[in-house]
Design a protein that fits this description.
By secondary structure, the chain is of the alpha/beta class. It contains five helices and five strands, in the order E-H-E-H-E-H-E-E-H-H.
Length: 107
């Protein structure tokens, strides 16, 4: 399973109006660390399908959202809940570190 993509067009419905927590992975195709963290996020999503939704946002295709959420380096992950950013995670991390960062949502 791979994380579903979101975009400017679907952002409001996918992220801001979502029922539970949504982790958005801000990434780009040319970013090596982004490609490294993607399968880890897929694992976390498949192990916690009822607790968190993980979406990907290509910053090259959606520069307005990258600017709005002050994405200055990637990979960057933000957890949204109730339309607000609750947590920001910067950089590729191993699974156990990401799970610690997400403990409040998947614990």
């Amino acid at each position: 399973m791979t994380a579903k993509a979101t975009s400017q067009a679907t952002w409001e419905q996918d992220v801001l109006q979502a029922d539970g927590p949504v982790l958005v992975d801000f990434w780009a195709a040319w970013c090596g660390p982004c490609r490294m963290v993607a399968p880890v996020l897929d694992e976390i999503q498949s192990e916690n399908p009822e607790k968190i939704t993980i979406l990907k946002l290509n910053v090259d295709e959606n520069p307005e959202l990258a600017m709005k959420y002050q994405i200055t380096s990637i990979p960057a992950m933000k957890v949204f809940q109730g339309g607000e950013v609750k947590t920001t995670i910067i950089g590729a991390k191993p699974k156990f570190a990401l799970e610690q960062d997400l403990a409040a949502f998947i614990g």
